[in-house]
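TL;DR need structure tokens for one chain.
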Amino acid sequence: MLVLTSARAIRHAACPQSAPESRLLHYAALLDTDPIACLFVVQVGDSLADLAALRGRPFADPEFVTLHNDVFEAVFILADDGFGHVVFVPDQPDIDPDILTLCRAEL
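>> reply
TL;DR here they are.
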């Protein structure tokens, strides 16, 4: 799993199949001026438990989930100032089925 916490990290990440470049660049532009989010990019071999451990909370109750070119984007707002987590999950058969089931249920 990739964990991206800065604009620089996003711009240097190599994850073309795991997250849409346009969405990553959107968050990179936001992070240039304000530390508004932490991004998690799920990859093959990552489990729901791995995601929960890295986020420090379960993958539950997102603000919204959208699907961009076969990649889910789940947004979680964690604080009143708008800080949150953004989780990108490729909609691929080799991704943990528990994560995919949760994403699909939120569409």
